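Structure, all two chains, one model.
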Amino acid sequence: MAKDLRKRSQSKIRSKIRWGTAVLLLLLVICGAYDAPAYYNSLAGKISKSTGIGIPQLSENPFRLGLDLQGGAHLIYQADTSDIAESEQPAAVEGVRDVIERRVTGIGVGEPNVQTNRVGSDYRIIVELPGVTDIKEAIGMIGETPILEFKEPNNVPPRELTAEEQKQIDEYNGDAKQRAETLLKKIQDGENFEDVARASSEDRTTKEKGGYLGFVGKNSLYFQYYIWGASSAEGDISQTVYDGEDGYNILKRGSEREGENEVEASHILICYLGSAGCESPQYTKDEALLKAEELYKQANADNFAELAKENSEDTGSASIGGKLPPVTKGMMVPAFEEALMQAKVGEIIGPVETQFGYHIIYKESEAPSKEYELWRILVKKETEFDILGPQDQWMKTDLSGKQLDRSEVVTDPKTGAAEVALNFDKEGTELFRDITERNVGKPVAIYLDGQPISTPTVNQPIRDGKAVISGNFNIQEAKLLSQRLNAGALPVPIDLISQQAIGATLGAQSLAKSLKAGVIAVIIVMLFMILYYRLPGVLSVVALLLYIALTLSLFKIIGVTLTLAGIAGLVLSIGMAVDANVLIFERIKEELNEGKTLKTSIEEGFIRAWSSIRDGNVSTLLTCFILMGFGTSFVKGFAITLSLGVLVSMFSAITVTKTFLRFINPWFKEEANWLFLGSKKNKNV
Amino acid sequence: MIDVINNRKIPFWISGAFFVVSVALLLFVGLKPGMDFTGGSLIEVTFAEHRPTITEVQDALQSIDLGNVVVQPTNEMGMILKTRFVSEEEHQQILENLQKAFEVVGNDVPTEEQLTQEGYSGVVLTNKEGEEQTLVKDKDGNFISPEDLVTKNKITEERVETIGPAISSHLRTRAVKAVIIVMVVIILYVAYAFRRVSKPVSSWKYGMTAIIALIHDVVITMGVFVILGKYFDVEVDIPFIVALLTILGYSVNDTIVVFDRIRENLIRFGSNKFIENINKGINQTFVRSINTSLTTLVVLVALFLFGGDSIHYFSLALIIGILLGTYSSIFLASPLLVVWQNWSQKR
């Protein structure tokens, strides 16, 4: 009775083991098919065809590959949030993320991934672009913030110098003057002018040439020295230090020669729609010509100034009767110059066409001018300009791309040129209205990325919040600008602080190499296990295959991104997975050596080896968990795959191997034979 | 049975010598920090037909103010340039200079017939000035400039990595933090594993000995990398740190297993034959220690030989560390335990 019961419970256990083995083998097949659906599908297709049994096909669900294996770019930007209140910084950085996401949509083959990350007080934006081929373009799309600004003429006078700054200038200049006088003294004491210039002049362009300026005419940059030259004789050196605009000068005069003829003239300009610099065109080109011809007929020496005042559209000269400053050759546009130089003194000519429009010109006088050969030694002065910097022609307004509602490409109905139309939001409409009201008759400037692209003149206030940028766009440029404006400006500036980009070819090579290394590693490990541990070794190999299939399936299901480091981690975990089997088999061997039966040895071996297996894996897992928090993709990839591998290996090495060993156990006698662990018989210890 | 304990002087001398030399190397020569920690840029390019010499490449980049440019040939046609951190503009400038210097634009523009045969198609467009222009489309319908068709020795950029100062300093602090945390966790773990007090050796002595063995493993691994850095320009980067930490996690358990066995023996057979029991424990775990390390080393050697450049030195560090870990848990940790025990008994 008791024996019967034992038998029954034994057969129950037996069937349990059989079932377990079958389930594990099935799991191996399913996981294998899931890992490599292409192979499975072609095989299933063949079987279905030859047997007529319909075997379901699996859908392809590829592994998620990291950028280092499929190629792509990993960019890290730092957001400059220094101008924003701390409480608003997270929102602003999220805004950056949204804008970048819109800009990169559609770049590359995979789905771009944009994340924000806070490190201490720094905000970073991480952009991952899988499969992107033109990284330069991608970086351009992300980084090139279309900064749209509206500026008005700057009427604010430059600030006054502070007393301290004035004192600083005075001190510097006093010193400069003294230095210049010392130099002058040296020359007066007989030192060569050129040598002193070479040694001490602060005029970099002439220093090497001993201070030689060349022949200086009335209209040259050096007009103030020309005056000194006119009052000196050949070989003279200035008696005192000459106080010029840029500094203290010691001058020397050489020979004199006849210069270009100097001409005095007046002109009347009639400009037209489309001519350069025409601020308020009244005429078309044909009308302008007619008007100019009419004026030419009227004009004579007496009424020329009057006509110019009334009609000339050269804003600079009209008010003074069309009078131009004395000119020599090379100072005017070619067409104007040619006509003027050919005309006789007292003659009125016209209409002359230039890019500015039609000119009527009155040549008043022509006289030869003198030019003097000059040298100079310069000791620089400090001026207000050095401290205050250049006065900006334009002044910033509050209106920018931020208040833009949308923009679109339009064409100018008259010229057909592409333009970008802007529609402001409520705030922008008000700002734009104020700006245009303030500046009627004056130009405003539209800046794109720090460059003025258009400076239209305001004819009347614009109150509907609509503006048009008419830069010199072609249709593509206009479209791109409009797109970029619509994508939105970045709320804060960003700076590319790290980029990693890997070409698809290199990625594929890395993948192939690491897979090759993995396959070789697995084969050697399997051979080792079979040769060293015989039959149990074979079972551990099956367990290892199941381990690999299961881990890969898990990677797919959880969506682990496989990187090179990740594959390294997986391969390493394969090496570690068999460690558990080694521990178990060694323990079984020990138990057999102590004279226990095969069955007892197997059971004992598993129980006794467990604590070692657990301890060994715990320390590796602990390290991996710490590494996962490290943040770098290399470290994360490695730590995730290694820890997943270690966890799965605990299952495969223990449960799977145990089931298999129990399954084959009854095939053998009580004692282990040569198939087991190399011991033919129980050796005596 | 190998009498490890009574022959302990040999490994003590060997390990001691290696340890002292490694510490000296670390102090006086130092590891060569890689781009991860110093910041910088790495650009890998391949040349289609002819690879210029290192000096030619450096000369081509002379006009850009890059400081010291390290140029290393790689594979058959590749070259790796290492410089300070470059901005995107400078990066493009570098590529442009290389293209100007080494790409050759031929003047044998292919005929229409050749183009059609190769799957290209021409599209005639009219530009703004009303002139006709022929643009060439490739098989995939992308426009390509005629120059591309005749460019010889085309340069392809395979890989770019730039790491700015903000990132590298961040990585440095992160690495230090990770090392400290792993150390602390391992020490706690060892303390936990030996929490049950046993006679005659107190539990904390097991723990301390295990940690001394670990320090030995890691310091000598670093010593080897000082030499590699000095003579083979091997740089220490994030993967190296990861390797060191993995060694810590992996090797500590080798020692724990041996100690476990010793403790078990001491409990089972009594502490009278102290040295004999320890020797027995070592020998019982000997094959197991060797075999577990062997399987792990096999896969690491495969990765080292075939896994490609990026994980080359990562696997090497792991190989050295695991070899040392196995050695130290057998020949160093247990004998140290005996020495310590004898010493404290004498006092």
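Chain B has a mean pLDDT of 83.
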